[in-house]
Write a structure and sequence with these properties.
Elements: H1 2-50, H2 58-119
Helix pairs in contact: 1-2
Length: 120
C-alpha cells in the first residue's frame, strides 16, 4: 500500500514539475516574442515618419532626424535590454529546473527514509 501511495505522490510531483517547466518555457518565449514585436512596430513607425517624399522643410527634416536618432537609441536600448533579460530568464529557468530536480530527489529520499523508519 505504501508503494502505491509513493507512486501516486511521485506521479503528482512529476506532473507538477512538468507544468512548472512548461510555464517557464512559455513565459520566456512570450516575453521575447512581445519585445521582438514591439521593436518591429517601433521600426515600422519610424519608417512611416521617415518617408515624406522630400516635401519636408529644413526644420521639419531636422526635427525628424532628431526623432529618428532618439527612436533608434530607444530601439537599440530596448533590444539590448531584451537580450540581457532573456539571458537572465534562461539562467533563472535553468536554476528552477535544477531546484525541481533536487526537490524530486529529496522527495524520493524522504519516502525511502520514512518507509525504513516505519519498518523498524
Amino acid at each position: 500500500m505504501e508503494e502505491t501511495e509513493e507512486k501516486k505522490n511521485g506521479e503528482f510531483f512529476e506532473t507538477w514539475m512538468k507544468s512548472q517547466r512548461e510555464f517557464i518555457e512559455n513565459w520566456t518565449k512570450n516575453q521575447k516574442e512581445f519585445m521582438d514585436g514591439w521593436l518591429e512596430a517601433a521600426k515600422k513607425m519610424q519608417e512611416s515618419f521617415s518617408f515624406d517624399g522630400g516635401k519636408a522643410g529644413t526644420s521639419e527634416k531636422e526635427i525628424l532626424n532628431m526623432y529618428n536618432t532618439w527612436l533608434n537609441t530607444m530601439v537599440n536600448s530596448s533590444k539590448l535590454f531584451t537580450d540581457q533579460a532573456m539571458k537572465m530568464q534562461e539562467s533563472w529557468k535553468t536554476t528552477v529546473e535544477k531546484q525541481m530536480s533536487m526537490n524530486k530527489e529529496l522527495f524520493k529520499n524522504f519516502n525511502v527514509s520514512s518507509r525504513q523508519a516505519a519498518a523498524q
